[in-house]
Amino acid sequence: MAGTGGVECAHGRIAVALATFTPYEQITHRAQTRQEWIVSALSRFLGDSPWRVVIKLLLISLIVGYIMHMFDWTPWDIYYGIRDAVMDIWHAGFDALGRFAGYILIGAMVVVPIFLLARVLSFRRN
Questions:
Q1: Domain map (residue ranges) of the chain
Q2: How far apart are CA 69 and CA 120, in angstroms?
Q3: Residues 7-30, buried b or exposed e (16+ Cβ, 10 A)?
Q4: Which keywords belong to this entry (predicted)?
Q5: What does the pLDDT look like over 68-118, one tens digit per residue?
Q6: What ranges in 47-74 are assigned the alpha helix state H?
Q7: Neighbour tally for 3: CB within 10 Å
């Protein structure tokens, strides 16, 4: 590129003043910078280069698909299994809370009258 006039930056890349570029070079440089930024952001999000992630996902999908086929599972079986497990935990939790509330009410039927009687008797003494 003509008239770069750049300086060395901390990362070893050359920082170029866009003012020295022709309009076409400025547009091209900005487009390259934007593409590099998009690829860099995508790589950061995925944790690796996009092609490596695609290859890893294909291999893992193959292995998981083979195992699911061996056990005659479908994605819906897994979905319904998880849903049923969550619902069982949900209902068991509220049953436990119901029992817990029942214990509190039974205990309160004994404790509250004794507490009130003790407060009344203590109030009379003062």
A1: 75-126
A2: 73
A3: eeeeeeeeebeeeebeeebeeeee
A4: Membrane, Transmembrane, Transmembrane helix
A5: 999 998 999 989 999 998 888 888 877 777 788 888 888 889 888 888 888
A6: 50-70
A7: 12
CA gap 87, 94 in Å, rounded = 11
Give the model confidence (pLDDT) of 20-49 as tens digits.
666 666 666 666 677 677 777 777 777 888
Owner of token pair 């170029």: 16
Q: Give one word for 88, left, alpha or beta, with left for phi > 0 and alpha for psi -120 to 50.
A: alpha
Are 3 and 20 contacting, i.e. CB atoms less than 8 angstroms apart?
yes
CA-to-CA dists, residue 9 to 14, 16, 17, 33, 81, angstroms: 6, 10, 12, 16, 56
First to last CA, the chain: 99
In sequence order, what are the residues at sequence separation of 6 or more whose Cβ sits closer than 8 angstroms to the Cβ of residue 20?
3, 4, 5
**Quick one: how far is CA 74 from the chain centroid?**
25
